[in-house]
């Protein structure tokens, strides 16, 4: 092969996603964009808060703004601002040397896995899980292992305990969850902490917890508990993609718990991984987010869409758990084969993603990061699709 | 170890560089910034062209500017703009599907190596070479092999021919060169193309040429010839770090020669690697550079510094080739041990990097991406240092 052997499978998987994407474009051209209901992508369409644009303009008018290299793990004043914000919010005692500014949450996860995982070691995550985890495991040479969740998609601690082996290096959680919208409670996180502590003892090897939290601020009627409180050996990573609607700008960070075993060494190694892969997180947007700690897009827009969508789908006869966070619905497929049902939805010009791709067969994912009108206008199609199989 | 075994060496190497960097900060605090002459970093200090700021403001005031995800290999209109510019300049027939917008040249190189190299395959580069190549080879699981250059740091085609083995997958060149400032001529590139064509036949395996060109626009009194003309199986990669002084913003691209064997497959695989590692190149700066094709910082500033520095060092008795491009000088160390001589320079509050780190022992690297005054004020120190060993 002209390309690397191991890349062949990744290119094939990507070309399947691209085909789906291109099919969507083709459909929009054929039927008109207003008549195609695309719920396939998690691309925030809520505009960034007004203060984001003002901050950006302010910085660019300021002659001292830097577009050049900074110390690779990020501007010290930005890392300090992140640490201050996290300390105020979670009372965790972070110092800036435990923060690395990253190329989004994807970059942060790649950094952490590169820092921690020896080839062939295992990365354990509850399923359903974000499809990108396959790619990040691949990049780090890790083996991705899944543990099933409970029927409501919350943590099944016994399943996790059983799935941990002597090769497990990292357990990776994502709450609010993509694709299910589940938000883990403080109790279940505490339980997870106890499982990881016991397993680390049992295998005489520290198991680290990585908490991937890009949807932390997109939560409805629930508080998203701090993972720092549940387990000392935790790395939290996130991006400003959803909370400031800056997904394309690739800006995020990782924060290593000050009480984690070898916390400074791990933060240092993640910083080196960051340098090797991306050099540094984008300069201008580091400076933007440094000034916007705690600022969030208008969550009520997502809440309203969730409510409209849930009501409409319920009336049509779909079964699902009302999501507590993120901007996804993960309904049960009315027939066993979710790929087949997603094709039936496509006959109604509705684009969804089969749950199988997320390790959650028998379900399908709908992103409601779309205008209200798309949701409302799609509902008759959802009704027809479910009626066609009942 | 709490961190991955293979990362230990990388962290140690990075901590040496950090120590040097921190020593510089310590010296500046002790002696005052005006009395420390820091030539260690290649961080462009020439401001971006005025039109860069105007374009940025224009885009931000435009409500249609996107901060969200775009197709992972980049905005189609930006890839088209890059292809148009390259076609106008080099008459090479590029189409946008052969362009991937990347997180700087580092990201582009990581993408290409990930796309092409099977673990253990060899990446061959002429030495002295940019120190980051060690890291990018590590990330891809490639073995970095070097071929010596001629005394003037131009390509030694025989050395390259000899160094190619059945494991060689990629030959990587960098012209204008960091650290030497050499610019390869059309003739030597043609010669390299012939060597690679012959070696590909000999080993019955296509060897690809990657041309890392972030300094292409920083050239004095010479034209930097097109590598596309020399060898069909070429991937050119670059960034806007130096030509627009945007090093911290992490924006660049890769372009696969339309006549390369399996060109589209390789561009596709590099695009998938890009997605897996960084998701996409930063959105706002993609849109900025899309409008600024062919725009360059004021090169005369670098030329003036080069001339002042060369004249001063020559008068002090240093031996070096006057660089044709980039913003580095790579003088001979007056004593064999370059690390020792760099320490003697430090006694004069001059910070330089030993050539050993670049695979060029017996030399040291000076970056003249610094104000004229730093160069002028440092010259007495350079004189004292060389006199102390003569």
Automatic annotation (TrEMBL), chains A, B:
It comes from the Bacteria. Its cofactor is pyridoxal 5'-phosphate. Keywords: Aminotransferase, Transferase. GO terms for molecular function: pyridoxal phosphate binding; transaminase activity. InterPro entries: Aminotransferase_I/II_large, NHTrfase_class1_PyrdxlP-BS, PyrdxlP-dep_Trfase, PyrdxlP-dep_Trfase_major, PyrdxlP-dep_Trfase_small. Its EC number is 2.6.1.-. Residues 35-374 form the Aminotransferase class I/classII large domain. Belongs to the class-I pyridoxal-phosphate-dependent aminotransferase family. PANTHER family: ASPARTATE AMINOTRANSFERASE YHDR-RELATED. NCBIfam families: PRK06836.1. This is Aminotransferase. It comes from Desulfotignum phosphitoxidans DSM 13687. The gene is aspC.
């Amino acid at each position: 092969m002209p390309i690397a052997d191991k890349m062949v499978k990744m290119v094939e998987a990507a070309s399947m996603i691209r085909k789906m994407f291109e099919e969507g474009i083709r459909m929009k051209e054929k039927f008109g964009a207003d008549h195609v209901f695309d719920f396939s992508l998690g691309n925030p369409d809520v505009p960034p808060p007004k203060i984001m644009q003002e901050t950006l303009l302010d910085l660019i008018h300021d002659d001292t703004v830097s577009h050049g290299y900074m110390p690779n793990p990020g501007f010290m004043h930005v890392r300090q601002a992140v640490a201050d914000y996290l300390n105020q919010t979670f009372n965790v005692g972070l110092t800036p040397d435990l923060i690395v500014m990253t190329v989004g949450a994807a970059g942060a996860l790649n950094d952490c896995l590169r820092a921690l995982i020896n080839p062939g070691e295992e990365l354990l995550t509850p399923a359903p899980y974000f499809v990108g985890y396959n790619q990040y495991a691949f990049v780090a040479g890790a083996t991705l292992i899944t543990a099933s969740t409970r029927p409501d998609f919350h943590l099944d601690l016994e399943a996790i305990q059983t799935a941990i082996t002597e090769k497990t290096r990292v357990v990776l959680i994502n709450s609010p969850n993509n694709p299910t919208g589940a938000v883990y409670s403080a109790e279940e996180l505490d339980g997870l902490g106890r499982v990881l502590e016991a397993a680390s003892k049992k295998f005489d090897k520290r198991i680290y917890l990585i908490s991937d939290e890009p949807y932390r601020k997109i939560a409805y009627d629930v508080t998203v508990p701090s993972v720092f409180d549940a387990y000392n050996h935790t790395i939290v990573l996130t991006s400003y993609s959803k909370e400031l609607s800056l997904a394309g700008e690739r800006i995020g960070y990782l924060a290593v718990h000050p009480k984690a075993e070898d916390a400074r060494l791990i933060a240092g190694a993640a910083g080196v991984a960051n340098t090797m892969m991306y050099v540094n997180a984008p300069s201008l947007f580091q400076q933007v987010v440094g000034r916007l700690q705690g600022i969030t897009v208008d969550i009520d827009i997502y809440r309203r869409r969730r409510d409209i969508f849930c009501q409409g789908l319920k009336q049509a006869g779909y079964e699902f758990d009302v999501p507590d966070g993120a901007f996804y619905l993960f309904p049960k497929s009315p027939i066993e084969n979710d790929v087949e049902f997603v094709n039936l939805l496509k006959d109604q010009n509705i684009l969804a993603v089969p749950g199988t791709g997320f390790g959650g067969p028998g379900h399908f994912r709908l992103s409601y990061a779309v205008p209200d009108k798309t949701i409302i206008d799609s509902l008759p199609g959802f009704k027809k699709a479910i009626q066609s199989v009942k």
